[in-house]
């Protein structure tokens, strides 16, 4: 077991997320690597036999595909019409998940005396959802805001995207990055005294799946090329099949193409997001587990004085929202203009509101530090 984090108090002025020695996560032996060493073993497979999986796929495939497609249609703003019933639903949902901006003072009151730790999704949270996922650029204003945020609080980006791709979008070395739905976690680099070598945290619980993921990626690209607008994205430890630029009349066909490939790979599972199907290893790891791992890594595993805030817009973020609700610590904030089933406590409508909320957090922290310095 290697001690992979150095324990120090959080220093607002440092602008660097400093972290502590952590115990094994979920009773696993975790080896942190600086260079390309053998990764730790996966934290366990979801128990499912190949025979049972294939039977379930054949029996339930049609209904499951239709459910995926119907859910994607329902989440599309072009299909949401304003009706008296919807307005009532919106009002009721807003009461249960009020705006984090309107309830800012309440959130701050709840965090009094505690260390705030920030977790942020990328697409739809820090950047708008766009037709081409390769052009989901972060605005300069948002980047500036997140940079200031990281000087005030430990901050992590938790995304379904490949970690390297998210880093290229965000371009902030002082953050933690959890890519591939938390299956690829890397901390800020720390320069040695010689300033020649650098050390960084690396945790990749699904490394053994890389050859399989690459194989499936090639098959999906070949299988879906007949569907105009279909895009398969390799996120290293998971894959995304994007429906955003596909004619809705072709969505069922595309979903069937994806299923036809996946039925031969029982160690991979299929989940649905916003106009996307996600292919992931069947290990018990998700954004919620990544949040717990990072909290433990930061030295807050069993602390009562930590206040995690997770902001995200997708179904995959629900795993993190549920963890916070179960822990009874911090809050989840869903980014959505429309009512959704969620375990988040608060809501924001779009990335611009996320930026406003983050700015208010930074301003509150700066004023708090100034007040303490005058005492």
From TrEMBL:
EC number(s) given by UniProt: 3.1.3.12
EC supergroup of this enzyme: hydrolase
Organism: Theobroma cacao (Cacao)
Gene3D superfamilies xref list: HAD superfamily/HAD-like (3.40.50.1000)
Protein name: Trehalose 6-phosphate phosphatase
Annotated coiled-coil segments of the chain: none
Lineage, highest ranks first: Eukaryota, Viridiplantae, Streptophyta, Embryophyta, Tracheophyta
Family: Belongs to the trehalose phosphatase family.
Cofactor(s) the record lists: a divalent metal cation
